[in-house]
Amino acid sequence: MSEWLKKYRENHADFDKGSLNAIGMDPFAAFSTWFDEAVNHGETEANAFVLSTATSEEGVSSRIVYLKELKDQRFVFYTNYLSQKGQQIAAHAKVSMLFFWPGLQRQLRIEGIAEKIAEQESDAYFASRPRESQLGAWASRQSEILEGPGDLIAAFEKYDQQFPNAVPRPPHWGGYAIQATSIEFWQGRPSRLHDRIVFVKENGAWKQIRKNP
Ligand SMILES: Cc1cc2nc3c(=O)[nH]c(=O)nc-3n(C[C@H](O)[C@H](O)[C@H](O)COP(=O)(O)O)c2cc1C
Hints:
Layout: H1 3-8, H2 27-40, E1 48-55, E2 59-66, E3 69-71, E4 74-80, H3 84-91, E5 94-101, E6 106-116, H4 119-127, H5 131-139, H6 149-162, E7 173-187, E8 195-202, E9 205-210
C-alpha cells in the first residue's frame, strides 16, 4: 500500500446517518427537505454547489457558486454572464450541479438546462445586495486576465464615483435558472451499500429509479 493510502485511509467515514426510504415521489419537496436539514445540521455553506459547464471544444470546467433560490422548480444562481461559465452556458446550456453535505453523508446531483432569468428578477436581486457587492460586480471583468490587483481596486473606486447613489445592475450580471432533467439523492449507508435514488424526467413526468451504489 502506498504511503498516501496509509496516511489517508483512516479518514473515511462510517456511513450510518440514515436511508432514503422516506424520500417520497416529489424531487423538489425532497430537495427542500434535504436543504433544510443541511442548514439545520450546520453544514458549512450549505447553499454552495459545484457547477460544471462544458463546451465540446473547450472541455468541462467546474467551480462553486451559491444557490440563491428554488423558484418554480428551477434552481437559481447569479453570476457574470461574460465569465467563462457564462460563455460556456451560452454555447452549451446543459450543466450539472453538485451539493455535498458531508455531516449528513449526503450528495445531491442535478443535471439540467440553464437559461437566463428575466431581467426584472435580476434587477430585484441586484438591488437587494450590499453596495460593495454591487460595485464589485461592475469592477470585476470576471474570468478575464487581471494585470495587477491594483487594477481591480481602481475599477472599484471608479464605479464608486460614477454611481454616488443607487448602483444600477450591470447588463452583464444576472441570474441563471437551471431546469432539472435528473436529480439524484445519495445517502451513505453501512458497508458501502449506499442508497441512490434518481428522479428522471420522461415525457414531462418524474420517474424514480434506484441505482447501484
Ligand atoms: C463559497 C463560494 C461561493 C461562490 N459563489 C459564487 C456565485 O454565487 N457566483 C459567482 O459568479 N461566483 C461565485 N464564486 C466564485 C466562483 O467559484 C468562480 O471563481 C467565479 O465565478 C469564476 O468562474 P468562471 O471563471 O468559471 O466563470 C464562489 C466561490 C466560492 C468559493
